[in-house]
Amino acid sequence: MRHRVIIASFILGLLFFHNQGDAQNNYVLTIDSKTRDGVKYGEHIATQFKDSKIFPGTIRYVDVYVPAGYDGKSPACVCVFQDGMSYKADTVVSNLIESKELPMMILIAASPGWIPGDYDAESPRANRTYEYDTPSPRFGKFLLEELLPFAETLQTSDGRKIVLSNKREDRMITGCSSGAACAFNVAWNTNAFSRVYSSCGSFTGLRGSFTNATLVHKFETKPIRFFFQSGSHDMWTSFGDWWSANQAMVRSMEFAGYDFDYKFTENANHCDDNVTQIFPDVLRFLWKGYPDNIPSPKHKSHNGMINQILLEGKTFEKLSLLDVMGGKLVSNNGSLFVTSEKETWVLDEHGGKGESYLDKRILAFGNDGISLVYSTQKGLEILDKNGKTIKRISQKIYPHAAVALRDGRFYIVGALGRTDNPRMLWALSSEGALSLEDENLKGARSLGISANDNWLYVFEYDTRRGFNYMVQKDGSGLKYKQEFFYIHLPDEADGAEVSSSVTDNYGRTYLATAYGIQVCDYNGRSEAILPLPDNVKPISITWGGKDLNYLYILGDDNIVYRRQLNTRGASVNDLAPKIRVGAG
């Protein structure tokens, strides 16, 4: 019991310390939040959960509310609460189920985890801000793999089992303050919840949730319906201003086209009774038209790049599973290949691996079908379009990636040995002369070339850095190296993990990153982020199709995906396009 008091006191102190002395509003609850004659109310199952592998050692209180009319057999919708059950939710939900405004819904609430100290058990490590304010998939993984399955092991006092729907459109998540940030982070990062109530959301600098409003502007719009609540007397601390942070979230929702609503109340304090007063109408909005009205965007995003490159109705297609370890995609004027360390295979238009093409790894194709290849036996070679060796490079290096220029030159990133940190950048002349251009990179595994051959782009894997070099027409070397790209990092990654890049004819650069496909403008800014289905991490990307308007992606699940885009990929076989972009 002492631990329960400690955790409750900590949460209450966080929620209300800023508002002492503020005038209190007199919020009147509606009939929806009060018990009614003729309505049967359900049962609470109170327990603890101590067996987490995702948050090892944590203890948390769990409260499951099962409405009276639940049959114990049919999969029920679910609403998950942070910081315990709130908003008089058990009463409200039972009333709205009775009036047929809500589907059958089981409520699952848990406290944040804590770990008692070994020397002083009454001084625990509180996990609340770590679990709730961190914008990562971790807490969502905990819910989906541990807490919800644990809830399904429970039974009511009369023996009814808990059976929860696993459909995204049947799941809601909510919380107040950091609990609201958690609700957003879970829905945003897992693709497993479609309805979110955020009251006084901590989209501030407690940890990393202050980035969410910016990312909403850049990500392709997701099928989630939101309701936001805050007030003019919300918290304002060294971590930020809750009132303005929630307004920024609402603005980002409107920009991105989400189906959302909000209530910002004059003089409302942080997580005061206003969050409970409006809860019935919040539920009505979030579950409107269920099950036919599935949450979906209200209108197109105002993101100019997204609107330029995406085609209506064209999404990521899942193609074929490849049995190629460490594979990378390459293309030659739209023809597709997949390479391993020792071999290259043809890919068909459906991403399936066809016949063996070459017993070497193709790094890049140049114009007229020439290719730069690598094998452990012969090292680097330049081949003609028939696979005959034109040049063999005597210097021994280990290449990670390469790009070609129209004049027959190649640029290569890699190391002297396979196990060395790839920190070197070389130029390879059309005559086969290899020259070192840079040896001060940190884990550079990918590079790109602008469609007009003006600029070489090199990306580090373990940082967020992407560099721009000016390419000189006379072949005398690279100039004016500059840290040029701004790439977004997910909280759980130490670097952007750029593993592959391509460019299009309009000055855009497409990067395979830990966040998905990030599309940067000609000034190096990540402007659009396209996550793969189920948040699969992209490993390698290339252009395909006869018009070079399909982006092919190899994911870390070893599946090939593709998406038709409203653009044309850059190719050394095309005339150099004229790219005219302002300074931004």
Describe it.
The chain is of the alpha+beta class. Helix content is 17%, strand content 34%. The chain has 10 helices and 36 strands. The strands form 9 sheets. Strands 1-2-4-3-7-8-9-12 form an 8-stranded mixed β-sheet, with helices on both faces. It has a 4-stranded antiparallel β-sheet with strand order 13-36-35-34, with no helix packed on it. The protein has a 4-stranded antiparallel β-sheet with strand order 14-15-16-17, with no helix packed on it. Strand 34 and strand 35 form a beta hairpin. Helix 4 packs across helix 5. The longest helix has 15 residues. The N terminus is likely disordered.
Based on Cα principal axes, name the global outline.
elongated
Name the structural class.
Answer: alpha+beta
The biggest beta sheet is recorded as: 8 strands, mixed
β-strand amount: 25-35%
Radius of gyration: 28 Å
Report the average pLDDT across residues: 95
Q: How would you concisely characterize the structure shown here?
A:
By secondary structure, the protein is an alpha+beta fold. It is 17% helix and 34% strand.
Fold topology:
Layout: H1 2-16, E1 43-49, E2 60-66, E3 77-82, H2 89-98, E4 105-110, E5 114-115, E6 125-126, H3 128-133, H4 138-151, E7 171-176, H5 178-190, E8 195-199, H6 212-218, E9 225-233, E10 236-237, E11 240-241, H7 242-256, E12 259-269, H8 274-277, H9 279-286, H10 304-309, E13 317-321, E14 328-332, E15 335-339, E16 344-347, E17 353-358, E18 361-365, E19 371-375, E20 379-383, E21 389-392, E22 398-404, E23 410-415, E24 424-428, E25 434-438, E26 444-449, E27 455-460, E28 465-471, E29 478-486, E30 500-503, E31 509-513, E32 516-520, E33 526-530, E34 538-544, E35 550-555, E36 559-564
Parallel strand pairs: 3-4, 3-7, 7-8, 8-9, 9-12
Antiparallel strand pairs: 1-2, 2-4, 5-6, 10-11, 13-36, 14-15, 15-16, 16-17, 18-19, 19-20, 20-21, 22-23, 23-24, 24-25, 26-27, 27-28, 28-29, 30-31, 31-32, 32-33, 34-35, 35-36
